[in-house]
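task queued by scheduler; priority normal; single chain, no ligands, no partner chains; default sampling; output format set to structure tokens
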Amino acid sequence: MKNKFSLKIPFGIPVFFCLSMIGCLFILPSCKKDKFSSTGALSFSDDTITFDTLFTTLGSTTKFFTIKNPGKQALKISNIHLENGAASSYRMNVDGDSGTSFNDVEIPAKDSIYVFVEVTVDPNSANLPFLILDAIQFTTNGNQQKVILQAYGQNAHFFNADSIENSPVWGNDLPYVILNYLQIKPSAKLTINADCKVYFGGGAALLVEGELDINGTDTSHMVTFRGVRLDKDITGTSYDDFPGQYAGVFFLRNSTGNINYLSMRNSAYGINVGNIKTTDDPVADINTLLAMDLSNAARLTISNSKIYNNAFYGIFGFDGYIRGENLLIYNCGKNVLSLITGGDYEFTNCTFYTRGSSYISHTKDPVFYMSNFFEYDIGAQTQPTVSKALLTNCIVYGTLEEEIVKDSSSLNPNNIDLQFKNCVVKTKKDLSDPIFNTCKKEDPLFIDVFKDDYHIKSITSPCIDFSDPSKFTSSDIDGYGITGAGRDCGAFEFRH
């Protein structure tokens, strides 16, 4: 005979009470509270969180550290707070909650939680970078521990969707920060002197309708254009390595530029010469395109300058007029030098180079590209009156088999005059092609392209004394004077 389980309810006890008591027999063991360690302490992934120099009023990237409970019992942190409280420049988020102070934060045994930190720097009167200090205080079992927070702040001149209508001169008293855009009006002139640093916010552009003069004096006193982020991202990678942080510099029709010793990096479109100012009327914009010629071209003279790590272009000519010498332009995602829709261009003793990297893809587009048309609609092209380019004593090299592309319009295939004279080039074309005049194909033998050192490393380089003797610069980009009859091609003279 099978045993039978029977439940006898004592007389006088309500049924619902007994059922509740039965439920507690099952619920109470699982609701047992954790025992918290009365002696344990915390460990941190970092004891100091440092933010690189930040411009006043602009927020930082987010940094984080972890708080770990290494013990065998749960820990309760009685309090976590910013020492400067609500007056702090820092903001923190503890395990998903934002604030300046937190109580009774629990960490299970052998577990950890995240703390995220950001900072915004308030402006002051200092010209030089200044230090902003705070700390996050932790109280656990009566013990106090802290993580130091430190950031360097920098005051600056700010321009946000502004325009220039007179003739200001920028010096090196404070950095200049451009957010959104800064427009130089047709009658205005902006002069930027040596050692001035100009920082661009995300997507920002300098639009030139008047005149831009940049007056660096040597490679130790260059004018700098770069992205606004001076810190590192959440993975610890410097923002200075990232291309495409801002749009670039745009010389519109009828504008003028005179640039000497500019260091420009991390933009999307580099220096654009000759773009039109678009409107909301597409018909009017097409008429403006069709009216482009050298009489209304943007005109740029640029020398002794470095342009690099751009998402698309180094220099982009759009039916423009450019004279360049002693230029080092490298590692651009589309073309280092792109000359389209005609124009008049000359470059002397320049080094143009691109290789693929973690941030730049170099698998398709060549270092040098030139066309004599712009297709603004299917089958509809602009036809420039002049389309010529002369590169003398230059290095045009890269990791593709073909780094030089000439793209002629089917409507006017002969209206393009391109010549490389005394250049070292990377091409599959035969050097008997009319575009080459006394050129070489050999490896230039740079010192180290992976460290972006494009000086010539050996006397056996094909660049040695390979400049056209009738046309070469009297000193290289470093200011190294040419004393003999020969000049090496490219931007750098070999140190014999």
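post-processing summary
- Residues 203 and 211 are 22 Å apart (CA to CA).
- The two ends are 110 Å apart (CA to CA).
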